Amino acid sequence: MCCTGKCARLVGLILLPSAFICMIANLLLFFPNGKSLENDQISLQVWLMGGLIGGGLFMLCPSCSAIRAGGKGCCGNGCCGNRCRMLNSVFSSAFGLVGAIYCTSVASAGLAIGPKCQVAGGRWEYPFEDLGTGNGSYLVNQTLWTTCEFPVNAVMWHVVLFSMLLAVGAVQLVLCGIQVVNGCLGCICGDCRDSKDDDGGL
Fold this sequence. Notes:
Order of helices and strands: HHHHEEH
């Protein structure tokens, strides 16, 4: 039988490091290829901070709440002991869903529009913004990446980090959705674990 407490703790333990991954990836986007740029030379999607805020700070609350829901309840042990923390994790996970949606939306936009970089003539612009999708997309045709003259490897930096944010944000979205359902079940039915299980492991 699947235990709601164990499931909650597992979800929380995955969400917590994923939040730090998103924050680090977003911070790295401010320094393409390790270069420090002027504020107006950084793309809008980086400034929207989908990873730092949505996938990062928004995810700390649901991750900690889920971990706590997987521990001993504040009303005692056994089947009725964890309902209050499970209920709290439901609301926290719903909050996390908002953050995950924001993170994936910003990351998708960042990949669709592409990086802001210096092109021929010394202009800073979004050279791939109007290329559309399919075979004409810069994501498919890597020969277009040379359009960006500075920073070096700016396109790869942009694609890799925003792809990470999109993938991790999607995982967070699924996990928060699972915890909303799991938390509701735990709140209604209680935790299936015996009291001895609360003191060790998952």
